[in-house]
Write a structure and sequence with these properties.
Layout (H helix, E strand, L loop, with lengths): L10 H23 L5 H6 L10 H17 L4 H26 L2 H16 L8 H21 L7 H16 L5 E5 L2 H13 L8 E4 L11 E5 L5 H23 L3 H32 L5 E5 L5 E4 L3 E4 L3 E4 L8 E13 L2 E9 L5 E8 L2 E6 L4 E5 L5 E2 L12 E2 L2 H7 L12
Parallel strand pairs: 1-3, 2-3, 6-14
Antiparallel strand pairs: 4-5, 4-12, 6-7, 8-9, 9-10, 10-11, 12-13
Helix pairs in contact: 1-4, 1-6, 3-4, 4-5, 5-6, 9-10
This protein binds zinc ion.
Length: 424
């Protein structure tokens, strides 16, 4: 057993927890300043009682981000602070989780990338609250940078793991090892730790996610698993399945009968989960309404379009066919343009003109440009009763989306043209 660091030996944790408490305080004070806290919102705020750096805090803050629009319906700037602050808390919580198993520098890098992305928003897109949230990190960045380089604060788990690996390989030259990680980002961090560690770099680590692709000379595998939500668990089963069939036979030499049995059990679970998810999908489809919704910017609550302006192309691209929408966006060239289907390619990024919140991408289909939006970037407001909600994926959408027949559209809109802020 390896004892985790005491707080004295973990100044990274101490600093991050302080920043988080400050954010929670700013959010709470603002709510009280605007009036009394509703029961619903107070419930959502309960996550702040969870221990920071845990999964229960993560679940709570995610619930807070997605449900706060239901409670704050008539104060856009308050909602913006709560959702942006919530997003900062979510990232810091994740960094604390990373810090438990990875190097401080990996956890710090994770936060730095997030802050840089926030800052890259044009200065007139950031409001005072956004700037204040960023400043909380900036004020401590130097200190955090310093502790990330200090040997005395090194994660004892990693030192222990290093010793175990060196010890094992000293006696078993042809051994293979697997490290199971909770999230993809942790896999990346562990991977770079091994690569950059002089004593361990001989291991030649490889990362395994969905495919079991592996190189022959590698002694080391990493696989992302556990802590999946339901849909991802389905994916995890697929990984396990592939992993079992392709690798386990050689890795652990299970007796054939036992292997067969385990595979059968996995397949049964797989089938049961697939049937359940199909059933849920059918139920969701039936529940979808034709009543119109407004799509409001997920950050600044600016109106973008109505649900009836959204059409779905090829069952997957949700694009906007209302010209007025395009006056409310900023576009920029996509850093990784890509062909995503027959006669369809992604070439630009779309964001809110008012606050620069990421809304989606520009795609060209049959030489016509469209904005393809992510539903997670919007707050959905039902026109009839102004009830607000958020969802993460299009398949969870509360409203129906009509399919787009591209040829019909072309005939009916021969002059369709969208002005872009960049050269294609
Ligand atoms: Zn906006």
């Amino acid at each position: 057993m390896v004892k985790p660091r005491s707080d004295d030996a973990d100044p990274f944790k101490t600093e991050i927890v302080t920043i988080m408490s400050e954010i929670e305080k700013i959010m709470g004070e603002r709510v009280h300043k605007q009036g009394t806290m509703s029961e619903g919102l107070a419930d959502l705020f309960n996550f702040t009682k969870s221990v920071k750096g845990t999964s229960s805090y993560e679940q709570g803050v995610e619930k807070f981000i997605s449900h706060s629009p239901e409670c704050v319906t008539s104060n856009d700037s308050l909602l913006r602070l709560l959702r942006t602050g919530g997003e900062h808390l979510r990232k810091y919580n994740h960094a604390l989780k990373m810090n438990k198993i990875c190097r401080i520098q990996d956890a710090l890098q994770f936060i730095k990338e997030f802050i840089e992305k926030e800052e890259s928003t044009r200065s007139d897109g950031l409001n005072e609250d956004d700037k204040q949230l960023i400043r909380l990190f900036k004020d401590r960045e130097e200190e955090l940078q310093y502790v990330s380089g200090e040997k005395k604060f090194e994660n004892p788990l990693l030192s222990k793991l290093e010793d175990v690996l060196i010890g094992e390989y000293a006696t078993k030259v042809n051994a293979h090892a697997i490290i199971f990680c909770t999230k993809r980002i942790t896999v990346d961090a562990m991977y770079s730790w091994i690569k950059e560690n002089e004593r361990l770099s001989f291991l030649k680590p490889e990362k395994i996610f969905g495919s079991s692709v592996r190189k022959k000379n590698s002694k080391f595998y990493m696989i992302a698993s556990t802590e999946f939500n339901f849909e991802e668990r389905d994916q995890a089963n697929k990984i396990r399945h592939q992993f079992m069939t392709k690798s386990v036979r050689t890795l652990s030499k299970l007796p054939k009968d036992q292997l067969k049995e385990e595979l059968l059990a996995l397949q049964t679970i797989d089938l049961r989960e697939r049937l359940m998810s199909e059933k849920r999908e059918r139920e969701r489809q039936q529940k979808r309404t034709e009543a119109p919704y407004k799509l409001l910017c997920g950050k600044c609550s600016e109106f973008s379009c109505f649900s009836t302006d959204v059409k779905v192309f090829n069952d997957s691209n949700h694009l906007i066919v209302d010209q007025e929408f395009y006056e409310k966006i900023l576009t920029q060239k996509h850093p990784k343009p890509k062909v995503i289907g027959d006669d369809i390619h992604k070439n630009g990024k779309v964001s809110c003109k008012k606050c620069n919140h990421d809304w989606g991408v520009i795609v060209t289909i049959s030489s016509m440009n469209f904005a393809v939006i992510k539903i997670v970037s919007f707050v959905l407001e039902k026109c009839a009763d102004r009830k607000r909600t958020t969802v993460k994926k299009w398949k969870e959408s509360p409203f129906k989306v009509e399919p787009l027949d591209i040829n019909n559209f072309k005939q009916q809109n021969p002059d369709w043209s969208i002005e872009l802020d960049y050269q294609q």
